[in-house]
Amino acid sequence: MINNNIMPLEGLADPHALVEGEFVYIFCGSDKTPRTEDTWRMDKWCILASNNLKDWKIIGEILPQDTYMGNDTENCWAGYILKKDNRYYWFFSNKNINIGVVVAERVEGPYVDILRKPLIPEGFVDVPCYDPCVYSEDGTYTMFFGAGKYYCVELTGDLLGIAREPQYVQVLDEYGKEVRVDDKCTVFKYKNKYYLYYGDTYAMSEKLKGPYFLAGRFVGGGHNDVFFWKNKWYVCNEFHETGIFYRGIRVQELHFDENGKVLISSNDTGDIQQSKQWDFSRNNQNWFLTNDQDLIEGADGVVFGLTSQIGMRSPVFPGVFLRGNTYMKICYRWKGVKSKVLLKIEWVDGKGEYWKKTPCEKVISFEVIESGEYQKMKVKLSEKEGILRKITLIGEDKTHGIINIKMVSVGQKRVKGECITW
Question: What is each CA distance from 52 to 10, 214, 251, in whole angstroms?
């Protein structure tokens, strides 16, 4: 892994890379807040730069009011960046409605919406028109887009119009049967083969416009992009760093075997993992109080007054899959009279659009006693399966004191010592 998280806790997603000499630029969406609970709310696009893939800085922004989308919108979904004739073209999604394009003379902007209307309008094909990827070959620029199934369309020479009718892109399994695909595909070429991938799945073809045949698992997962820099292939992909609606971006090398098959490294991870640890000695990890106020960071963790009305909670869907026996550990220090603390766990079935489902909930009560030393509360979650939605710590009716939380962890690795069994 080159960089497991290029800008921690910043809520960046949908990365797309542009290489110019020594520099790599990543254009990405910005998730509005870690406290979003219902859908993807993205209020701008950010432009990042690095000359070593490890140290990144934001050098520019593209705002929705710079486009036909206008003010007060949170629809800044995935896009694609390319350079042609010394101009930069950012093709963007207006949520899952339509696709636009803005143009700049410099990579950092400012970007101008010349058309002042969508390049690909709603209803252009029989699937939602969003998540563009533009592939350039022999002077022809072909845009791929769609969700559920993909289409491609050739662009005019100025990249501001449509040159031909859209064409359906077939993706077939090993038996020649059409498969349903996700949204956000990326297309690239390696050793005379075309690769089309989405999430953690990829397909290959002899021809740019297909048909493509499923070839296996791709690295990373989530929305991602491939780029070639300093004689090596790389992939940048989003992951659920804070949560499903407030994400992060990682960068890793991309390797192939002698037949062009994608190799998966041992440290590759997808969107959702089976363990996670929140270290509050560094920062508040985007957790917050149950009254929606910010968690205060102390010298060694977060500190707040715990009552039956005020506790602390995680953002929703922090990227953890519960399967079989799962163990939780909370490292804390309590100041106040002996009290009871409630640990609330929410989870949902992980199939389909799980973020829309009504959660199941379990509440565990444990006793806290004042001590100068950190204490550890350990819980065994027996035979639960699903996606973790939220963790909440709050007091019972008579609970009142100061609690210092240093760390919370959840995973399948068994914790030492006695556990409260769920």
Answer: 20, 33, 11
Residue 254 CA, chain-centre distance (Å), reads 19
Torsion of CA 317, 319, 322, 328, to 10 degrees: -90
Q: 28 is written with which tokens?
A: 């990405």
Q: Tokens 């799980």 map to which residue?
A: 354
CA dihedral defined by 160, 143, 70, 123, rounded to 10 degrees?
100
Structure-token match 């989003």, residue found: 238
In terms of Cα–Cα distance, which of 129, 127, 122 is closest to 143? 129
Q: Mapping DSSP to helix (H, G, I), strand (E, B) and coil, where does residue 65 land?
A: helix
What's the pLDDT tens digit per position in 283-315?
A: 999 999 999 999 999 889 999 999 999 999 999
The dihedral over CA atoms of 332, 335, 337, 338, expressed in degrees to the nearest 10, equals: 10
> How do residues 249-292 score in pLDDT, each as one tens digit?
999 999 999 999 999 987 787 778 889 999 999 899 999 999 99
CB distance 401 to 339 below 8 Å:
yes
pTM here is 0.94
Cα angle vertex 265, ends 206, 325, to 5°? 120
Query: How many Cα neighbours within 13 Å face the side chain of 226?
Result: 26
* Stretch (H or E) spanning 34: none
Q: Tell me the C-alpha to C-alpha distance, in Å, between residue 242 and each of 173, 317, 319.
A: 34, 8, 8
The CA dihedral of 82, 221, 203, 146, to the nearest 10 degrees, is -60
Record the tokens describing residue 408, joined without a space: 């919370």
Task: Please report where in the chains the tokens 């990579």 appear, as a residue.
Answer: 107
**pLDDT of the residue at 420:** 66
Record the tokens describing residue 171, joined without a space: 């993706």
Angle at 209 (CA atoms; ends 101, 142), nearest 5 degrees: 20
What tokens does 286 get? Answer: 């985007």
Task: Give the Cα separation of 410 and 259 in Å (integer).
Answer: 39
Give the whole-angstrom CA distance, residue 173 versus residue 211: 10
The answer to whether the CB of 7 falls within 8 A of the CB of 15 is no
Q: Helices (DSSP H) in 178-320: which residue ranges? A: none
